[in-house]
Amino acid sequence: MPAAILLNVLQVALVLGLSPLLRGVLNRLVERLQSKRGPVIWQPYRDLFKLWHKTSVEHEGASFIRRFAPYAYFIAPLIVTMLIPVLTAFPLFWAFMGDMVAAGFILGFGGFFLALAAIDAGDVYGAMGASRTRMVSSLAEPIFVIVFFAVSLTANSTIPYVVTAHWISSAGAFFAPSHLLLLAAFLMLLLAETGRIPVDNPSGHFELAMIDEARSLDFAGRPLALVKWGGYMKFMVLGVVLTNVLVAPWGLLTTVGPVPIVLAVAVLALKLLVLVGLVAAIEGSLAKLRLYRIQEFLGAAFVTAVLALLVQPFHQ
Amino acid sequence: MGFVSGALVPVNAFIGALFLLSTILLMAFRQVEGYMRYFIWQSVLLVLSTADLAVIRGSPNLFIVAVITLAAKVIMIPLLLRRVLHDELRTRREVELVINTQASLLVALLLSVMAYILVIPVLPFAPSGAAVNLPVGLDVLLIGMYTLAIRREAVPQMLALMAIDNGVFYAGVSITDSPAIIELAAGLEGVMVVVVVTILARTIAQHIGSTAVGHMATLKEGESR
To answer: Looking at the domain assignment, is residue B136 inside a domain?
Structure first.
């Protein structure tokens, strides 16, 4: 029991502590691919530290949502962390409290409040960004649902720990066409949901073209730090879902002990590094899509997800 | 079935999924260069699948088929296209589509559902280890035909034709252990088609200044260019 408590705390601490580093590595890699030097990988920590010690200014007439939203956005990925296998192959306390659909809704909850807060500020760009994130999310929602339909059809469950165990149950399960197709769909979903190229340009500073970043335009100081940190964690949590739950469940803890834990952290870091490399390669080779072509991108993801659902019964 | 071939069956299914995905990308892209890239991917996957089936069945004929496909579709056809067509034709973006991409994706989805439903009655008779080839092959055939119908440029239309060919091959290699000479003929025929169409496309481009064959339905009499 104490070991399980420790592991739960460790998982949350890991996501809290390592997510800025993950973003730092990603930023560095993307810049490197463009033949620039790029910021040091610790830069997100410095940003967070700086913002944390600044005072925050709030709009006159802004409602309580403005104060509440950064916390909601910050907490959501942490709750999801307790539902998914970050380090352990065996379920922890919260594992059966919610499945992956619940995880999606919890992340959606954070995004919803941030969008409300962006509109609440009364600023044009924030509201525009908020409405655009809603557009992307509403297009991503059916893909999300279909991906998890396909997962539950394959693994007979949407509880992350059960799904993880299913892929390695046999070679046939791992190499099933539906597995591959739903991975492709989920990767496209991850890019859309975390505001990466080709859906959004995370390094853009032009307000009219912003989608994801525009929501945090009117925040300052500590709330801004929370929003940024929440964004880093959201990326890491979705990355963990992709790598640990959907792709490569190897290297998760089966026994508790200091050495296996260190090993599990190292394996997780390696997997996330591969994911970050993949995302950086996509950012380096594609351009941002026009707003009205995002539907085509997500349409392709939707077709891929439906195909995963469709081919499943035929190749068991 | 031995251990190795036991593991190769799911690999074949995996390749099938990629094959289907590459066909959908071929349909959804707008740049001629993009079509070409996904056509090459598709052909590489066809080669891999054929080689995989050859190992599963221990059939030398299928190996020869894989090599012929590799030579004809992965190497010769793209090489020919790049040589004969100048950059202007290759890098062009097809702005005008008969049906927009979103609608096309949904049509592709419906075609896939249809292909799977059509294949259900014959699945019990499918050769062991290659059940995936029948629905995917039929699906690629249907999507290829649809792509052929919605393109207005000569080169993308020809690549769609080649994609249909790939789909037929993909389903074909699973059912028959055909003699390599037939495959050789089929492979060469593909190359010949490409030669003819590229020369035609080039001539059309020289005369009319465009390869948008969709616009050639009306006559332009007495107009000098």
So the answer is: yes
The whole-angstrom separation of Cα A265 and Cα A2 is 19
A274 assigned to some structural domain: yes
How many domains is chain A partitioned into structurally? 1
What local confidence, expressed as pLDDT, does residue B4 receive? 60
More confident residue, A63 or B128: A63
In a domain, A217, yes or no: yes
Does any domain span residue A180?
no
pLDDT of residue B217: 67
Place of tokens 């979103």: B102
Degrees to nearest 5, angle at CA A270 with A266 and A275: 145
Closest A-chain CA to B134: A314
What domain range is A87 assigned to? 2-140+201-296
Domain housing B141: 3-207
Q: Which residues of A touch B24 (CB under 8 A)?
A: 300, 303-304, 307
Closest CA to B35 of B94, B83, B85: B94
3-class DSSP string for A57-99:
CCCCCCCHHHHHHHHHHHHHHHHHHHHCCCCECCCCHHHHCCC
Give A-chain residues touching B11 at CB under 8 angstroms: 175
CB distance A252 to A89 below 8 Å: yes
Q: Residue A176: inside a domain, yes or no?
A: no
Q: Which stretches of chain B sit within 8 Å of chain A by CB?
A: 6-7, 9-11, 13-14, 16-18, 20-21, 24-25, 28, 101-102, 105-106, 108-109, 112-113, 116, 123, 131-132, 135
Q: Which residues of B176-208 are buried (b: 16+ CB within 10 A; e: fewer)?
A: eeeebeebbebbeebeeebeebbeebbebbeee
Within a domain: residue B215? no
Residue B172 lies in a domain: yes
Cβ neighbours of residue B10 closer than 8 Å, sequence gap 6 or more: A171, A172, A174, A175, A176
According to DSSP, residue A54 is labeled S
Mean pLDDT score, A215-228 = 91
Q: Residue B1: what pLDDT?
A: 45
Q: Tens of pLDDT along A167-202?
A: 888 777 787 878 888 899 999 999 999 988 888 888
Contacts of A177 in chain B (CB under 8 A): 13-14, 16-17, 20, 132
Q: How many domains does chain B divide into?
A: 1
| CA distance linking residue B163 with residue B147, whole number of Å | 9
